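Protein fold
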Amino acid sequence: MSGSGPNRSRGDAGAGPEFSRRRSVIAALAGAIGALLVGASMWPVWRFISPEKRRGAKGTVSIPREKIAQGGAYFFHFQGHPAVLLQPVPGQFVALSAVCTHLGCIVTWRPQQKILFCPCHGGRFSETGQVLGGPPPAPLPRYAVSAGDREIVVREEKA
């Protein structure tokens, strides 16, 4: 007469539903922890491809002339968004938004090719911000630039 009467063990009675409930709770917790880990691992990727927005955006930015070499690029923040200052030829400066017009990723400078490149979908822009290839629908916004003896001033109005 095992399993019947007053000596029946507590674990035998109703083991099925309790086990199922416990298993469901453990599965839900494991799923939640897994989702948090995936989200945490994707955060650095998102921060890399999305532009950083800063408060207190200025209408003008002054950059020391020695920061930008001929044929080089200098990345900075302008009006709360990433921007880039280029010197394609000696004494000529071009300031552009560094945010790709396709999906808002940050472009990088490729000095060997003399292009701004979007790492997200392969968009390519000229030194003046014009689309050279890839999916971007429009050129990079351009900003007004004044070159002095010691500094380059990037202004709010579009060039």
